Structure formats: structure tokens, C-alpha cells
Amino acid sequence: MPVISKSADIAAPLEKVWETITDPSRFGEWQTIHVGFGGDAPGPLATGDSFKQKVTIMGMPGEVEWTVDEVDAPNTLKLTGAGPMGTKATAAFTLDGANGSTKLTYDTGFEGAALAPLGSALEEQSSKAAEESLQKLSELVS
């Protein structure tokens, strides 16, 4: 499973960043791949929750059914996802706050035979989307 890891130093308090990333109703404000939800937007995320998120990567639409595996407020959020054609995804957010700012590390991975033909192009586009999302998040909460 290719794993992409990106970090950002955000000029905002830990709690503000945490509240934003764990509120699905705000995903569209900062997640560049987010299109909507398969159903109503879920409330703030808690361990065991699941929800369907519509996404677009490389111009291709898809839907991921996410399960929240871990919520350790305000430091860790981990999800696993099941996508179309047997694809799988992971997403982990790790936050560390000090002096009114937050270091956010975002790790994401994906696998599945349906993704194999896309190879390095998918990895490159996912990396770019992660960077752009972290930049938008930083601008949103700072």
C-alpha cells in the first residue's frame, strides 16, 4: 500500500484544528478531493462511526465508506475506508500543539487491484491533493 505522509505547521491552537478536522460538515472547506456525502453529513466523528464520502481523484469520482478506528482527542484521528471495486484506503491525522500553534501530520494510503494501472500518477496526485488540503486547512483556521 503506497503511503503518503505530509505535515504542516498551522498558526492556530490545537483545539481549533481538531474541531475542524473532526467535523465532517466542514470537509468541503478544506479537503480538495471532497465532493459530498452518500447521505447526510455525519456529526463530529467518534470511534466506531461510519459514513460514506463522495470524492474525486484524478478527475475520477468515487465513494469511500469510512470507519473511524480511533479518536484520541485532540491528538489522533484514524480511519479506514472501503472504496469501489475492492479498493481500500487509510487516513490518519496526528496533531501536536505548542504555544498556540499546531503541527499536523496527515498519512494516507490506498490499495487495490483497480488502482494498480494508475500507479505513480495516482500517488503523485494524492500527494498534491494532501498538500493542497493542508494548505487550505491552515488558511481556514489561522
Sum this structure up briefly:
The chain has 142 residues and is an alpha+beta fold. The protein has helices at residues 14-21, 27-30, 119-141; strands at 3-10, 34-37, 50-57, 60-72, 76-82, 88-98, 101-111.
Give an overview in words.
The structure is a single chain. It contains three helices and seven strands, in the order E-H-H-E-E-E-E-E-E-H. The mean pLDDT is 93. 25% of the residues lie in helices and 44% in strands. It has 142 residues and is an alpha+beta fold. A seven-stranded antiparallel β-sheet has the order 1-7-6-5-4-3-2.
Largest sheet: 7 strands, antiparallel
* Average residue pLDDT: 93
C-alpha end-to-end distance: 33 Å
Strand order of the largest sheet: 1-7-6-5-4-3-2
Poorly predicted spans: none
> What is the 3D shape?
globular
β-strand percent reads: 35-45%
Architecture blueprint of SSEs:
Elements: E1 3-10, H1 14-21, H2 27-30, E2 34-37, E3 50-57, E4 60-72, E5 76-82, E6 88-98, E7 101-111, H3 119-141
Antiparallel strand pairs: 1-7, 2-3, 3-4, 4-5, 5-6, 6-7
Keywords:
142 residues, seven-stranded antiparallel sheet, 7 strands, 25% helix
